Amino acid sequence: KVTEVFAEVLRRVRGIDFSELDSVEKLIDLIRLLPSDTSCFQAFLVNALDYEKRDSGPKDEFRHPNETIFSGWADCDDYVVLNHFEAWLHGRDPRVIKIAREDRSHIFVWYEDENSETVILDNTRFERLTSGQTVEDYIDNRHRGFEICVNEKMN
User: Fold this and answer.
1) Which of 18, 84, 116, 142 has the smallest number of Cβ neighbours within 10 A?
2) How many CB atoms are located within 10 Å of the residue 54 CB?
3) Is 116 left (phi over 0), alpha (psi -120 to 50) or beta?
4) What are the CA-CA distances from residue 51 to residues 20, 54, 79, 125, 133 (Å)?
């Protein structure tokens, strides 16, 4: 897995052992080694994790970021935790949106960057909205038929 290769490179080049990513501090160190450009973190997620829907019921199941990274898979709940954590760590003010329709729900992160542009982090999708576009426009284009249930900061 890419995560294991990345951890091995960090161990050799930087002398940092991420063989057991057992603390939030180690995860913070890992994320800080990546450039602060969100697209770099998204590229890391694309290569490190496979998308798998594994929730056992209608309730969201949020795993610890360390568990997600080393499991090699994630669903939208897991990506929200990772994307929110990365955005927050780099001084952004992320918000979480939960959307739903009759048969399913989805959750993703968005924030306004230093240029007041809206950035969407939807699983491994990184999208900067063009001027005048709103989060609602994004939902209409990418998740047709879904309605916003929650739009708030995550503690």
Assistant:
1) 116
2) 12
3) left
4) 22, 9, 9, 12, 27
**The residue to which tokens 């890992």 are assigned:** 30
pLDDT at 20 over 70: no
Q: How many CA atoms lie within 13 A of 103 on its CB side?
A: 3
**If we measure between CA atoms, which residue out of 92, 103, 93, 112 comes closest to residue 147?**
103
* Main-chain dihedrals φ then ψ at residue 104, nearest 5 degrees: -170, 170
Cα 47 to chain centroid, rounded: 13
Tokens of 95: 């918000």
pLDDT digits (tens, 9 = 90+) for 59-112: 668 888 878 877 888 999 999 999 998 888 888 999 999 999 988 889 999 999
- Could you read off the pLDDT of 128-150 as tens digits, one per residue? 999 889 999 999 999 999 999 98
Least confident span in 9-23, 27-41, 44-58, 60-74: 9-23
